[in-house]
Fold this protein.
Amino acid sequence: MKLGDVAKLLGGRLEGDKNFEIEGVSSVENPKPKTLVFCSSKRDVERVKDIKQVALVVHTPVQDANCVVVEDVKYAMAMFLRIFYPEEHPSGVSEKAYIGEEVIIGEGVYIAPFTYIGNKVVIGNHVKIYPFSYIGDQCLIGDETVIFSGVHIYPRCVIGKRVRIHSGAVIGADGFGYYIGKEGITKLHHIGSVVIEDDVEIGANTTIDRALIDRTIIGRGTKIDNLVMIGHNCKIGENNIFVSQVGLAGSVKTGKNVVLAGQVGVADHVSIGDNVQVVAKSGVANDLEANGTYGANLPSIEWSRWKRIYLYLLKLPELFKKGS
């Protein structure tokens, strides 16, 4: 399409040749002729070697370049990719899928070969379930949800509308709960469920445990990266973002718009307020008040130097006593 049409589509201001032909999209690292390159910073623009061969989507006009100037470059990219590179899914129920008794299946559904659908499952309209996925008894799957290959959803879980669950995710396994007494370690039988609200995305190999008695809840619009662990009885608020290798112990509660960066660990029964950000590799052992940025991590340093620092840390109590 022509650059002028792209500008109209993105609601941006055209700077340059409206008839410049666009044949696709390419990255800042590998720009290709006649493509659209989204540059969210000056550094991105500088990395494009020959700006005359491409068209730029930028926040600030670039001299001698064909540009579409927009308020938010990343949002413009999301819009463009969604429209011009739509995700395509098949439809139809395979004869090689196992479908249990009293299953309700909506319109436009795809159930791939070698999937397992348990008894009394309700599957909404335009749901897509890919091969080797398991849906346990009495689950509810909302409209337009996509369940990629190899996902396991244990019985009695509720999945909302427009949810995306990537390969290897496990929803509704037992929480890690035991009673330790004279008789040894006794397992606590988890009879609760998991509720995934609308517009949630769950990354590959993420696990979300079922509650002991009530519900583990993932709030509307939350986005969870790959390899995240969410323990039993957690209550996750709306529009949270959990980056890879985050781990939440049981009964954690988060407010709205919480961001946990990579490898953040949260202890059990901790509450985190609205609009909180926790930096990577931090441990959260106590409640966090709303509207703050928290964290305590230690960047990598030379090993022998760290050992010396550690020895001094062990001596700090004695040094304080001497100082007082």
Observations:
- Residues 206 and 227 are 5 Å apart (CA to CA).
- The longest helix spans residues 303-323.
- The domain at 92-294 is CATH 2.160.10.10 (UDP N-Acetylglucosamine Acyltransferase; domain 1).
- The chain has a mean pLDDT of 95.
